[in-house]
Amino acid sequence: MQTTLRMFTRLVLVCLLVIGLQMMASAQGHGRGAGGGVGNTGGGPPSGVGLDRGIGTSSDRSAGRADNGRGTASDRSNGRSDAGLDRARLQEQNSRQADNELRDHPGMAVNLHTTANNLRSGYQSALARNPNLKFGQYVAATRLAANLGARNPNITTNAILAGLATGTSIGQTLQDLGLSKQETKDAQKLADREIKDAKRH
Questions:
Q1: Spatial contact of 153 and 172, defined as CB atoms under 8 Å apart
Q2: Cβ contact 59:67 at 8 Å
Q3: What 3-state DSSP class applies to 176?
Q4: By the 8 A CB rule, do 113 and 146 touch?
């Protein structure tokens, strides 16, 4: 009787063990299937989310530095670019005014013992070095150099223009080149009178 009971107990335990193993295998199979389904159907995190998030963070951090760098370089570049554009516009404006003045006073160049083309080309060259230079200043510089150069070899058109390029007036430039105040006044009066007379004819 006891032997039969032991055998029955063992049989029950074996059956329970077998059933338990089957349940575990089934559960694992479902787990794999569910995992595959989630991955395939997109129910879980999309592929690459972690990577994208990492790249995004890295990109944001890098972009912060890169944007700052680009911004600084761009600002500096734009500064140079804007200055270059302003310089070009000013040169164009002054050049156009010179053309208008030569057209309005066709005899001026001849009466100043030169040609319109010489005045125009010389002024264009001077503008490249000093876009703020006015045509009247250039003409005055040429007349002063012509009138004073023989007795004062250091007073040339280029020397006067160089002074103007630094923001110095024509009068002060002439004094810096060796003329007295009175000589400067007399020279400027003569040049102004010659230019006015040249424009009338």
A1: no
A2: no
A3: helix
A4: yes
122 token code pair: 């010389």
Tokens of 110: 């001849």
Residues 6+ apart with CB under 8 A from 135: 94, 97, 98, 101, 123
Q: How far apart are CA 79 and CA 85, in angstroms?
A: 10
pLDDT tens, residue order, the chain (201 aa): 656 666 666 776 766 666 766 666 565 555 554 444 444 444 444 444 444 444 445 445 555 554 555 445 445 555 666 778 888 888 889 889 999 999 999 999 999 999 999 999 999 999 999 999 999 999 999 999 999 999 999 999 999 999 999 999 999 999 999 999 999 999 999 999 999 999 987
From CA 87, how far away is CA 128, in angstroms rounded? 9
pLDDT of residue 36: 44
In the chain, the N- to C-terminal Cα span, in Å, equals 151
Check: CB of residue 145 under 8 Å from CB of residue 164: no
Q: 114 near 200, Cβ under 8 Å?
A: no
Q: Which of 191, 193, 115 is nearest to 160 (CA)?
A: 191
Contact predicate 145/123, CB 8 Å: no
